[in-house]
Amino acid sequence: MTAAPLIEVRGLKKYFPVRGGVFSRVGAWVKAVDDVSFDVGRREVFALVGESGCGKTTAGRTLLRLMEPTAGQVRFDGASVFDLGKRELRLLRRRMQLIFQDPYSSLNPRMTVGGIIGEPLRVHGLATSKELDARVGALLEQVGLAPEYRTRYPHEFSGGQRQRIGIARALALGPDFIVCDEAVSALDVSIQAQILNLLQDLQESLDLSYLFISHDLNVVQHLADRVGVMYLGRLVETARTEDLFREPLHPYTQALLSANPVPDPGLDLEPQVLPGEVPSPLAPPTGCHFHPRCRNATERCARETPPLREQPGDTLRQVACHLYDEEH
Amino acid sequence: MSARPQTYFGRVWAELRTQQRAVWGLRIVVTLAVVALFADFIASDKPLYMQLEGLTYFPLFREYGVQLGWMRWQPELLNADFAALNRVADRALWPPIPYASTAVDLTGEVFAIPSAQHWLGTDALGRDVAAGMVHGTRVSLTIGLVVVAIQASIGILLGGVAGYYGGWVDVALSRIFELMLGIPTFFLIITVAAIFPPSIYVIMAILGLTGWVGIARFIRGEFLKVRSQDFVTAARSLGVSDARVMFRHILPNAVAPVLVSMAFGVASAILLESGLSFLGIGVPQHLVTWGSILAESRASTFAWWLAVFPGAAIFVTVTAYNLLGDGLRDALDPKLDVH
Fold first, then answer.
1. Which of the listed residues B67, B94, B121 is the one where a domain comes to its end?
2. Does B10 touch chain A (CB under 8 A)?
3. What ipTM is given for this predicted complex?
4. What is the domain range of residue B317?
5. What is the pLDDT of residues A171-228, one digit of tens each?
6. Are B153 and B244 in contact (CB under 8 A)?
7. Which DSSP string corresponds to B149-174?
């Protein structure tokens, strides 16, 4: 990457208060996203992977400022997203969009498809009412649906079609950056492939950048340029997709990859089974969050939190593990 | 796709129609609305049409024109007694009940028992009870609808704001809701009615301004539920304004349960107004309402028709709205969808 990245996330934190007891005092904090930093380059697909509850969705929503962050910085094309006023933020919303996991709850059941896709154009004053129908029709065609579907309601469509409608809505404002939050996880495998191909085609033809949030490693391997692995609110490893899948460095990444089903009956891999459960985010382990389940854990891992460090000779390869400190 | 109706309210309507009681409730409500709307043409002391000395008049219609200031009475009809003129008229077409609800007639037909002439009898001032009942429908329905409209406006606004913004806004508004619940409405009304001159508008204002808490809490709960759905997040990420998100995206998905409390609200407003009229508070003397007819029976217990007819009307109306509300609640509840 030569040019400055489109998105720079630095030290992003999002803590949720846990209230309880008399007068709803804040008893504890859930550190859903804890000091996460990464970049998304222009025309790049950066994937965030991890199991459910690791904070990847919260990270995506917070960097779009759909939730207020606890701390940290996000720069979008140089502009500091968290410092923008209401009006500037509204202008920036045209450039960054979101695609949802659940195609059922993501479309307002009381609005027509035309109303749903046309709304962003209308509220931003980007189309007159005369142009609106044509613009909506063009967007529907862009995602592979007939323009006549404009007048129908969401419940008349299948999951895959509804996901296409959601994509058309996200494209309406002509964004540069889209957060795809588990965008294909709720779909049948055959439909997943269609939607993935659509997302890939759109990314290439419209020069989009994606933050692709997923727990499905096969999907990520297919689509992403780079991958970040999250565990209990922290980023434990980032790498180019092919490097990560060829040689995972962090013990958690290794375990995650070994547990991934590969559609090849001839392949006989021994999955690495992690001992224990994911700890409660209310009381995460000290030091490295992964140490109670890590086969390489030392006494230092329980004491000291390993920072995300660049690996020698590769600026795009970062890992947060004490194992790789000695190699300096 | 499916053979079922397409829109959400189409489905609710189909569900509602399967319930006998709700359908009857709706029929009665619609009938009452028609009676209220056309009260002047059902009971009036002016004929719809009268031919007198070769000239044709439409006194009932002209009365509207005069009231609106668009017309004047023909000089010969000014202060005319149409009942007397009827004897010399060539032809006349009268409303089914040829009396005004307020027409005092002390010439001998006081406390007339129900007969062919006065279907539901007359009261102590010789006023026709049937005419009073018809015009009372209008008062009752107006009060019910206006009160619920005020309640719904306040309730939706405050409940919506509390549910949408959450946090300290919600805490503050919820305390206000609880405070309002603690106010004894009936005694507040009696107090306020004692201060202000008797007026149906004052009654509507008090009932409307005090009874919105139920709707507000309903709406708050629905907003809390709906605002966490993805399409609301989508709207916000598209830069849609808070007001538009609230009213265009959340409200249409949250309003259905409120219809139920609105139906019950109409019933309770009608009942309250009748109670106040019965006690002789709030509604001016000259205005005939169901409650005020009922109140007359207190002093004249022998005149059973003064108690039975308005009592039955109140009973039927309140029951009809409650049945409708009940049916709506069932129709809106997908868990009860057995069909």
1. B94
2. no
3. 0.88
4. 130-331
5. 999 999 999 999 998 899 889 999 999 999 999 999 999 999 999 999 999 999 999 9
6. no
7. HHHHHHHHHHHHHHHHH-HHHHHHHH
